[in-house]
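Practice problem 4.
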């Protein structure tokens, strides 16, 4: 058997500590699957982790010592963030080390340059843990579905956001209260706006889309809308219409290019994805040959994320004796000879819409609203009008439209908002049937 592979772990927090422990607990299995020993030879961490005793493993307070250690073959980056992590990964690559990372922001924002750099050095960067924690979705897209043309994918890829929306629906709890609990439970990012404003999901979506469609990582082009404005009222009206609100990351191949968008979305309540609750993640992928496939599991957490990191370590270790170009973690998206597919502007995207407005309780109001929509060629699929509450001069009016180009819908909504008989802004959310 070949000599053991030396692992250096940088960052001994939740994911790094979990990785250290899974590697030790499952050492025999990992060795058998890698075809050689896997040994943690160096840990870099600013402080000890009381939940992860490191025994005899050398620990450096300067993580760059790990990147410079000749005994390290694979550097595991679990420090998170972009600045130090990028410099660390570059140093490891330049020193001829392979990299395994759980860092979605790093891959989404700097991946193109890092993959180029790694290819020029003949080393790999593996990042299964960066998307949807323990769900092997990168492997599924890259290997299991390699024979398919991927048409679209839609995922619940932020556990914190899904936890918030699930609690709002199931228990009628308010947004702020549930977010505070998600932070206490340790699901949320250091900056929870990354979770609730969709930035974390956009990081993950762009990685999925790059593999699914073979396009460069284009984080800045993802349309991103968060869930902080989703109200209990909208959750309840969606339910009444037979839908659930989920914060989805959607990547779709359309006639005009690739759609990349993260936003609250109404999906039919009977879809499996609509029933993914709490902090769980799920990704639905439609391939031309296989049809729809669904991947479900823990999207965050110590050992689920470590599960993905260890799988990457095994993959990289198995490929060490092969030439770089023929290793399994094959990435096409940094190749400049591929045709560039444009990213579709959100104004050009077509979806159905949920609209909620406060209308004066007067004759003719409804007909003015429907006229504006019909003039724009937008038809109404469903409508709820509630009786006026005592003391209120407006009534809630909820509409579901058919599919319309977003730019057209926005104009029609501006027309509705300009009506004297409509008060305040029109709340709008996109609706996706997810049926093909
Ligand atoms: N904050 C992320 C989430 C952690 O809630 O899904 C995993 O990336």
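Answer key:
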């Amino acid at each position: 058997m070949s000599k053991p592979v030396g692992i250096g772990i940088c960052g001994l927090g939740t994911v790094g500590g979990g990785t250290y422990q899974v590697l030790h607990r499952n050492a025999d299995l990992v060795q058998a699957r890698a075809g050689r020993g896997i040994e943690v030879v160096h840990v870099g961490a600013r402080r000890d982790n009381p939940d992860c005793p490191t025994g005899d493993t050398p620990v450096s307070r300067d993580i760059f010592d790990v990147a410079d250690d000749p005994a390290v073959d694979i550097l595991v980056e679990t420090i998170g963030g972009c600045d130090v992590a990028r410099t660390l990964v570059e140093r490891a690559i330049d020193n001829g080390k392979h990299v395994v990372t759980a860092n979605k922001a790093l891959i989404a924002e700097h991946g193109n340059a890092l993959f180029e750099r790694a290819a020029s050095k003949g080393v790999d960067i593996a990042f299964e843990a960066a998307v949807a924690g323990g769900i092997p979705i990168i492997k599924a897209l890259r290997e299991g579905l390699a024979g398919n043309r991927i048409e679209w994918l839609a995922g619940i890829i932020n556990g914190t956001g899904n936890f918030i929306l699930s609690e709002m629906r199931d228990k009628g709890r308010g947004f702020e209260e549930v977010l505070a609990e998600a932070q206490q439970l340790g699901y949320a990012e250091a900056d929870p706006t990354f979770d609730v404003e969709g930035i974390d999901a956009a990081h993950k979506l762009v990685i999925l889309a790059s593999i699914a469609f073979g396009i460069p990582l284009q984080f800045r082009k993802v349309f991103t809308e968060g869930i902080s404005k989703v109200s209990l009222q909208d959750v309840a009206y969606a339910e009444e219409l037979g839908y659930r609100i989920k914060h989805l990351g959607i990547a779709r191949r359309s006639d005009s290019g690739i759609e990349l968008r993260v936003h609250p979305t109404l999906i039919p309540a009977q879809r499996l994805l609509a029933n993914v609750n709490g902090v769980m993640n799920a990704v639905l992928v439609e391939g031309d040959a296989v049809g729809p496939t669904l991947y479900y599991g823990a999207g965050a957490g110590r050992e689920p994320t470590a599960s993905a990191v260890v799988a990457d370590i095994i993959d990289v270790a198995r490929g060490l004796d092969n030439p770089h170009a023929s290793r399994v973690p094959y990435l096409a998206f940094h190749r400049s000879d591929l045709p560039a597919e444009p990213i579709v502007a959100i104004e050009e995207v077509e979806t159905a819409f949920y609209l909620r407005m406060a209308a004066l309780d007067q004759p003719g109001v409804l007909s003015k609203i429907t006229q504006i929509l019909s003039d724009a060629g937008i038809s109404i699929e469903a409508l709820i009008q509630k009786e006026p509450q005592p003391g209120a001069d407006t009534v809630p009016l909820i509409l579901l439209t058919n599919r319309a180009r977003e730019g057209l819908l926005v104009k029609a909504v501006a027309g509705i908002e300009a009506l004297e008989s409509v008060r305040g802004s029109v709340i709008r959310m996109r609706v996706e049937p997810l049926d093909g």
